[in-house]
Specification:
seven-stranded mixed sheet, Immunoglobulin-like, GMP Synthetase, Chain A, domain 3, single chain, alpha+beta
Length: 318
């Protein structure tokens, strides 16, 4: 979870985003500031200045690959340390430069807020600025579960911080467990696990958005399994194309002494009961890819009624 950020848009040639990996920290813990400078229009010779106020001790830093090995100039005054990076030369529009600064939270007797600021300048002009606030807690919150006498014990307060640091991420994960069961919100690595609940095998070649839609539709697709509507919907989600299904339910009409025309007879030559035709319009890049067409055949074979036969026609999607 990132810290609370405040941005000031200045409409210059570059913007800056400045966030932290945690919004709550205890003394002795590390916090990382992530700063991204994005060039909106071609420019040159920018300067990035990151403020680390008193209460934070610089631990490590890194510059983007474009300026690999570049070290910041460090300024110090009574209130803070400042990391100053130069972005020299011509900077093309659309370029992004990502910096990291890691700091350790210093001991404190009271809870407090620490605000770090990232400023981008060009010469004497300030072209972008964003600040982020970190909440520092002097003692572990687990103290509230102990008798009040322990609240004044500094050692106990710091000792409980260790357990809180271990368990807080687990508690957050438990509090957010419902998101893991939501196909729209679950992390990509969990999609296959969710799909296994419905005996649904996901093709890893499919874009993530299609895999999420398949898992989300798994129950309704199962209820419609073996029907034209279910197969059509499955194919459209799976391929990202358009599917049309035509069922053939009658025998051919034949002239003769016993010729009849009724519900089980149809005019034409290609009428065979228990057959159907699938017309599938795919993105042009998929139409002639044999492996992909074989996957589609396998899908139809798995979803159609066992006693039926089908014909597949593939056309490019326009």
């Amino acid at each position: 979870m990132t810290g609370r950020a405040e941005s000031r848009e200045r409409g210059g040639p570059a913007t800056v985003a400045h966030v932290t990996d945690f919004c709550h920290r205890y003394p002795g813990e590390l916090v990382t500031f992530f700063t991204c400078v994005e060039v909106r229009e071609a420019t040159s010779n920018l300067t990035l200045r990151i403020t680390l106020p008193n209460g934070l001790t610089l631990h490590d830093y890194s510059a983007p690959p474009a300026f690999k090995g570049a070290a910041p100039y460090v300024e110090v005054d009574a209130n803070a340390h400042y990391l100053v990076w130069s972005l020299p030369g011509n900077l093309p529009a659309g370029a992004r430069y990502e910096y990291q600064a890691q700091a350790r939270v210093a001991p404190t007797a009271h809870d407090k807020e620490i605000t770090s600021r990232a400023v981008v300048t060009q010469g004497d002009d300030r072209v972008g600025e964003e600040s982020v606030t970190l909440n520092v807690h002097a003692k572990g919150s687990y103290l509230r579960y102990l008798p009040e006498i322990y609240a004044e014990d500094e050692l106990m307060g710091r000792f409980l911080m260790l357990f809180e640091s271990f368990w807080a991420p687990i508690e957050t994960q438990i509090d957010s467990i419902s998101y893991y069961f939501n196909p729209e919100m679950t992390p990509p690595d969990f999609l296959r696990w969710l799909a296994s609940w419905f005996d649904l095998t996901l093709n890893e070649r499919l874009p993530e958005e299609r895999r999420r839609r398949l898992v989300q539709a798994a129950v309704s697709l199962y209820r419609q399994r073996g029907t034209p509507q279910g197969l059509k919907r499955y194919l459209e989600i799976y391929t990202g194309g358009d599917a049309h299904i035509v069922e053939h339910r009658s025998d051919n009409f034949r002239l003769g002494a016993d010729a009849t025309l009724g519900p089980a007879i149809a005019l034409g030559r290609n009428n065979r009961p228990h057959t159907f035709t699938v017309l599938l319009r795919l993105p042009p890049t998929d139409v002639h890819e044999e492996a992909w067409i074989n996957n589609i055949h396998a899908l139809i074979e798995a979803e159609k009624p066992a006693h039926t036969a089908y014909t597949l026609h593939v056309e490019p999607l326009t």
